[in-house]
Amino acid sequence: MNTNKALNIEEEPVFYETAQSTHDDEKPIKTDMKTVYQEFDRLKTHIHSMQDRLKSTIAQCPEDKSEDLELWLSSPEKREICELKKNQEILRNQINELTNNCADAKDQIKDLRMRMRSKARQILRLQKMIVKMITIKDSLECEFGKFVKRFEFVTNIKAVWERVLQKFDNQKVRYSQLEQSFVPRAHFLEEKKYFTASVNEIKELVKGLFVYQNCRFKDLDDRLASKV
């Protein structure tokens, strides 16, 4: 019918754009949100333009069945106008549904953008946490290396002190043995006093013996002198 041809003529750009959009979606190209909004606005403008052209083209068509039949039996142009008027309501409902779908799609895209921003902030926080953890890891590795060196140093010091303490123990044993071989101080003082007294006594005895011998030598000298 001519009516279908007219509808196909009006709807052809929409289907062409949809097919083209589908073809573009198959390409590995990322379309940003601004482009999607522009596409929705362009589609909405095209729909309103279709409505305006239909309103300007369609004339007043009688609602009475007899008049409607008379129009059907008249010229093909009026019959096409009447058919367009009948299909206008269907097309209007489709346009309204498409408009609502566009609005819903915009809301979904807006919600998706908000989620993407939230995810981006979460990813940024995670990246900062990862950088911080890597920094802490590097710091811990450095501190662990220092700790290992300190542990080795302390281990060496401990081994040296163990040897020193072992030598101290050996010296204590030797000192104890030497101490046992020495005379106690009190006994040593008593022995010293006895030894001093004995020495003094010997000195007195030697002195008396010396005096006695001198006397005998003097007496001997006197005797020898008298005989001469």
Quick take:
The protein is mainly alpha-helical and 228 residues long. The chain has helices at residues 2-26, 33-57, 65-73, 76-181, 185-227.
List the keywords.
mainly alpha; disordered N terminus; 228 residues; 0% strand; 91% helix; coiled coil; DUF4763
Give the SSE map.
Elements: H1 2-26, H2 33-57, H3 65-73, H4 76-181, H5 185-227
Helix pairs in contact: 2-4, 3-4
Instruction: Give the count of structural domains.
Output: 2
Average pLDDT, rounded to a whole number, is 72
- Alpha-beta content class: mainly alpha
Helix content: over 70%
| Helical run tally | 5
User: Taking Cα atoms only, what radius of gyration do you get, to the nearest Å?
Assistant: 66 Å
Q: What does the overall shape look like?
A: rod-shaped
Taking the sheet with the most strands, its summary is: none
Keywords: Coiled coil
Coiled coil: 88-122
Pfam families: DUF4763 (PF15960)
